[in-house]
Design goal:
The protein is mainly alpha-helical and 214 residues long. It is built from eight helices and three strands. The radius of gyration is 31 Å and the shape is elongated.
């Protein structure tokens, strides 16, 4: 009995990298944009709450994500800029920008997780409300928004890792306006000089040509 080995079609093999590039590009764009939006939105929400004793009574205090740490919002903007810049650079530049994108996501996640149990922002507000610099917040509690911000950072991290792995297959911005393009265009041959037209003779002299053709 003879066994026939199936040989993959050359076109299918050639098209596989292109399909992988398109899929990874779509996932990276969606993950990066969604992660940045989630991180920015989460930083504006209430992360912690508690009370401060003011004039013998309990005064409620709340702290937004931006009060706890400004890192997630700042790195979300950096991540968005890096996501766009991935398509403006090539080769080594694309690797550097992709790494920046991944690091932005990792930084957002780390800062959000650290801020999930932080009470220093509320302690500062308690000191301001009571006028006592040593005052601290009571009945401290935290919400789930820091973990939402960390999830947004994880999405940006995924986009950065995809850019590092498949960025070489992604398209780049048109190089139509890059330097050197005009120099590479073939120069048109000068029109023949008409000896009966003085303006043609002067133009030829300006170009450093001999109008007599000698």
């Amino acid at each position: 009995m003879e066994y026939v080995t199936a040989v993959p079609h050359p076109r299918s093999e050639a098209g596989e990298p292109a399909r992988s590039g398109r899929r990874s590009l779509a996932v990276a764009l969606l993950s990066g944009a969604l992660g940045a939006a989630v991180a920015l939105l989460s930083s504006r929400q209430r992360w912690a709450e508690g009370t401060a004793t003011v004039a013998g009574g309990a005064f409620p205090l709340t702290a937004k994500g931006s009060d706890v740490t400004g890192v997630p919002a700042a790195l979300a903007i950096v991540g968005l800029a890096a996501l766009v810049a991935v398509f403006a650079v090539r080769r080594a530049g694309r690797l550097l920008v992709s790494a920046l994108l991944a690091l932005s996501g990792a930084g957002i996640a780390a800062a959000a997780l650290l801020g999930a149990s932080d009470g220093s922002a509320l302690d500062e507000k308690a000191a301001e409300a009571s006028g006592d610099t040593s005052a601290t917040v009571d009945a401290l509690s935290h919400t789930g928004w820091p973990y939402v911000a960390a999830a947004g950072g994880a999405l940006i991290l995924v986009a950065g890792l995809l850019a590092l792995r498949y960025g070489g297959l992604w398209p780049a911005m048109s190089g139509r306006y890059e330097r050197g393009t005009a120099a590479q265009r073939p120069r048109r041959a000068p029109k023949p000089v008409d000896p009966d037209r003085p303006e043609d003779i002067w133009k030829a002299l300006d170009r450093g040509e001999d109008p007599t053709g000698a």
